[in-house]
Specification:
Blueprint (H helix, E strand, L loop, with lengths): L3 E4 L1 H5 L8 E4 L8 H29 L7 E6 L5 H12 L2 E3 L1 H9 L1 H8 L4 H17 L6 H16 L2 E4 L12 E7 L2 H12 L3 H23 L11 E4 L5 H15 L2
Parallel strand pairs: 3-5, 3-6, 4-5, 6-7
Antiparallel strand pairs: 1-2
Helix pairs in contact: 2-4, 3-10, 4-7, 5-7, 6-7, 8-9
Length: 261
């Protein structure tokens, strides 16, 4: 598609904004000026921090219960995994931990330490031992991000009763306390869903799906040296073609309860 210069439509509607930045337009709807994008990112980060603080406050009030299982969700873009995850967490009364929030916590040393601090000394030792064995078994040389990521997800696992979306959680937590599900769907169905959800052209939707597929696979390969699509990594791989969110949720709930009666 030919690239052209356009004025930022967001700035054109922002009250008091007189900057009218020009931006590169590539056919997507996301044409924001640098000022708007910066403001949006700051607001988004603050919202994520509030979610994390709410979960930490809940953990502090509840204290550490006995081991409770978690669910990890891996999904192909456009397969409906995010919607199913939200309903699943609500139905099972689990804490829903999105991949974006977990990633931002892992990128912040201060936030990571606050999460781990909700564990007592014994649980911290147990977690450290597990992660050391994980790195050794997988021959991983963790960087700072991976160390924080695994500690954050490991802490969530110690508290239990959480549904974790993305970030390779299925490769971090002990499988005996974990139900691992992956949602897939035919490519054309996924493209159609992205077109509807993002209100974009077919070309843009296809590009988004292909890039998101590649990015997620590359993340798992880089940090865990595994194939994200290998069905042996999951307790359930569900093709959502022809299934409603409610139907898919019921299938996962039945499978989860079969493993953890």
């Amino acid at each position: 598609m030919t690239t052209e210069r356009r004025l930022c439509v967001i700035c054109a509607w922002r009250e008091h904004c007189q900057k009218r930045f020009s931006v590169t337009y590539n056919g997507s709807l996301n044409i924001h000026c640098p000022d708007f994008t910066r403001d949006y990112t700051i607001r988004d980060l603050e919202a994520d921090k509030q979610v994390v603080e709410a979960v930490l406050d809940k953990w502090r009030k509840e204290g550490l219960a006995g081991p409770r299982p978690c669910i990890t969700v891996s999904r192909e873009p456009g397969a409906g995994g995010s919607e199913i995850a939200r309903k699943l967490a609500a139905d099972l009364k689990m804490d829903l931990m999105g991949g974006q929030i977990i990633s931002r916590v892992a990128e912040s040393t201060g936030m990571s330490e606050k999460v781990v601090a909700t564990l007592d000394e014994k649980r911290v030792t147990t977690l450290d031992t597990w992660l050391t064995s994980l790195f050794t078994a997988r021959h991983l040389w963790p960087d700072v991000y991976l160390k924080h990521l695994t500690k954050v997800i490991g802490t969530i696992g110690e508290h239990g009763n959480a549904l974790i979306v993305g970030r390779g959680a299925q490769f971090i937590l002990p499988p005996e306390r974990l139900f691992r599900v992956r949602f897939i769907a035919p490519l054309e169905q996924r493209i159609a869903k992205i077109m509807k959800d993002r209100k974009c052209s077919r070309d843009d939707a296809e590009s988004y799906v292909i890039k998101a597929d590649a990015d997620r696979a590359a993340f798992i390969k880089k940090y865990f040296r595994e194939d994200i699509a290998d069905p042996s990594h999951y307790d359930l791989v569900l093709n959502t073609a022809g299934l409603s969110v409610d139907q898919a949720t019921e299938i996962v709930k039945a499978s989860f309860r079969a493993k953890f009666p």
